[in-house]
Design a protein that fits this description.
This protein is an alpha/beta fold and 310 residues long. The protein has a domain of 215 residues: 3-Layer(aba) Sandwich (Rossmann fold), CATH 3.40.50.300. The strands form 2 sheets. The protein has a 5-stranded parallel beta sheet with strand order 2-3-1-4-5, with helices on both faces. The chain has a two-stranded antiparallel ribbon with strand order 6-7. The chain is globular. The model has no long low-confidence stretch (mean pLDDT 90).
């Protein structure tokens, strides 16, 4: 059985789902049909188990069950998966390196304030977060670090430590400290969004496969909100998720979640920008991190993300 040799490690809400889907269309690439197995972030497994007192989340714990996701991949040159919080995990980089030190890594980064706002919205939609107000959710962080006010459906408590999650420099440095720069491609979400085809071809070149292939760049993860928060809470309950994962194959489960459940439960809505007052409140906190990551990547992210005059 062929082992994965390619990983999209993050971030969520920064184009990982779209990129996963676009890459899976390429004849030389096999991407796992279950998008986020979260196998290598074993720190989150342990954190979750300790918080809940039992195994409530993360079904892929042993290598045999993980490798089954790639049982049909033997004929492909590139075999990969996307678990968008590997980047945030403190140990996933080392675990992936130990598993396959020759693997290639893709990191996607998005303007931190826009990213947090979008991530919080997604968490609310999937009932991961029970505080619907963005600013209130941010304000709860100090209590949550004390083990208080943790949403009872978050896979690991640290997933709602929002200001910790935007420490981009520490996160990507963990990968660059282990893998050579030739094995890592860091993509800025705004560039990917502006020109799907250009970024896609760059990735195919990075993977050293035919870059003339053109994918179907259909829209993925449009902004939405629940039609009914009560029904949404019921369908996204951990019990129903657990039972569904046992009843269906990973491919069927992922298809039903994306193409049936979300279409029925959610309705499209206009994308909303981060309110100006929130941007102003967060900008000074965020800018030092933007400068650090910009210097590390040798890219003018202050200009690209609008922090140059702050």
């Amino acid at each position: 059985m062929k082992k994965p040799n390619f990983f999209i490690v993050g971030q969520p809400k920064a184009g990982t789902t779209a990129l996963h889907n676009f890459l899976s269309q390429h004849p030389d690439i096999f991407m796992s049909e279950f998008k986020e197995p979260f196998f290598f972030c074993k720190d989150f497994h342990q954190e979750s188990d300790q918080h809940y007192g039992f195994r409530k989340f993360f079904p892929f714990r042993d290598e045999a069950s993980y490798l089954k996701l790639f049982s049909q991949a033997d004929s492909y040159k590139i075999v990969g998966e996307s678990s968008a919080l590997y980047l945030y995990s403190r140990i996933a980089s080392q675990e992936i390196y130990n598993f396959n030190h020759k693997a290639k890594i893709i990191i996607l980064l998005r303007n931190p304030i826009d990213w947090l706002y979008s991530l919080h919205n997604q968490y609310v939609n999937t009932t991961t977060e029970n505080e619907r107000d963005f600013t209130q959710a941010l304000a709860l962080e100090s209590l949550r670090k004390q083990g208080k006010k943790i949403p009872n459906r978050v896979q690991a408590p640290s997933w709602v430590f929002y200001l910790e999650m935007i420490k981009y420099y520490d996160q990507i440095k963990r990968f660059y400290d282990l893998f050579s720069s030739s094995q890592i491609k860091t993509i800025i979400f705004e560039d990917f969004k502006a020109d799907n085809q250009k970024t896609y071809q760059e990735i195919l070149d990075f993977l050293e496969i035919n870059s003339s292939f053109i994918a179907n760049y259909k829209s993925v993860n449009c902004r939405a909100k629940p039609r009914s928060y009560l029904l949404n809470q019921l369908i996204y309950s951990p019990l129903i998720r657990s039972v569904s994962q046992k009843l269906f194959t990973p491919k069927a489960y992922d298809y039903i979640a994306k193409n049936v459940v979300e279409k029925v439960l959610w309705q499209k809505t206009n994308k909303s920008a981060v309110p100006l007052e929130i941007k102003q409140q967060l900008a000074e906190k965020v800018k030092p991190e933007v400068i650090k990551i910009a210097d590390f990547l040798n890219t003018d992210l202050c200009q690209k993300w609008g922090y140059e005059n702050i």
